[in-house]
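quick one before i forget lol
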Amino acid sequence: MSRPIRFLLDGEVRELRDIDPTLTVLNLLRYDLRRTGTKEGCAEGDCGACTAVLGELEGGRVRFRAVNACILFAPMLDGRALFTVESLKRDGALHPVQQAMVANHASQCGFCTPGFVMSLYAHQREGAATDTATLKDALAGNLCRCTGYGPILAAGQAMGTDPDARLAEALAVELKAIQPTEMLELEHKGRRFLAPRTAGDLARAVTAHPDATILAGGTDVGLWVTKQHRSLPVVISLNEVAELLRIEDQGDAIRIGAGVRYVDAQATLAGLHPEFGELLRRLGGLQVRNLGTVCGNIANGSPIGDMPPALIAAGASVVLRQGEASRMLPLEAYFLAYGKQDRRPGEFVEAVIVPKLAQGRIFKAFKLSKRFDQDISAVCAGISVGVEAGRVTDARIAFGGMAATPKRAAACEAALTGRPWTEEAVRTAAAALAQDFQPIDDMRASAGYRLQAAQNLLLRAWFESEGAAATRVLEAQAVAHG
């Protein structure tokens, strides 16, 4: 072990030595630190009962993020401050967030309450808005089985501003004092955790351990440990590599590094097109977006990942690195088969490059799921269509949940290209989706539903793009059918 993990807990520097590299922060809190206010509900980052708050240095200030402790590995605390519900005590009095919960009768059975309190605490410390819509987004990652959302939202509106704002500068100084300057290397009972600090060191570590698990946000990898009970012999984290935490404007495209979290990419992607912003708003709860990364969603290769269909439709490319060499390929070419990607031994996803959309281009991103917030997609669609003089010049149409990989709809695109951008042409192209996909039945949707939904989403893209003109078509159809 090169050095201990060092983090702040209530202003006190804590050190961790000789620990399991995949020990979750939830288990560290409950069983080692005896902080039992943090609850285990689902152990998969879905319910929010385990919500804790991380304080991280960013640009000289402290950024407060609500996270799921159940899928956060303890080594990821290195150089950060951790806050739990016990951290809010102040000489026997309730914290203003807790007081607001009490005053608004926002706790029923109480099991989920610490998680809600910590989500509101992070929201307050970030100085975020407390209107109902903003609070709903902030709390979408916390589930209340007693259906007490109304009083909890009222508590968020009543909690006031951050009473500890004056202490943020002191916290920044304390965090600066424990910032690591060398790679973290842990070993415990034959298992290793490496956290390189430069892209070069990361590339060398992956080359030396080509079968290692590459860790970004851990929102998928965490479940491999908590749900599948996998033993991960070598974990290599890219979270400390500054080069991979950057978003770069390349003029005609945006380059998003492998360590960029969803929450930090959201404004940039929404700037490319609002559809990206809305898609990201529904991707997990805020705790998931505070940890998960855009490139991690790609690297994992799930056929139901939310981002790949929209990124494929936008013409994105993925950058892969092996040692000092890099290569770039169209994102759709990266996905080869179920669970198989075009990633060679010792190679890792370094970035995704997203072209800026041409002015006037039609771009739509749709997600269908049983639950609006924080649910896995049954069908996800990315639709990008160029139209000039009323005729389709080109089309990039991709779907998730329809095949073993995120996939472009080649027959549909061919049926649309060169045709007038009309309802009739779109319906013909939608019918061609049956040539592109043979979806399966599973717990999220039947094959028939998926195909019908995909066809309807393409038609919806046309109606939305035509606006008032499409409304007149619908009205005429309604009249014709009585």
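fyi The first strand starts at residue 5 and ends at 9.
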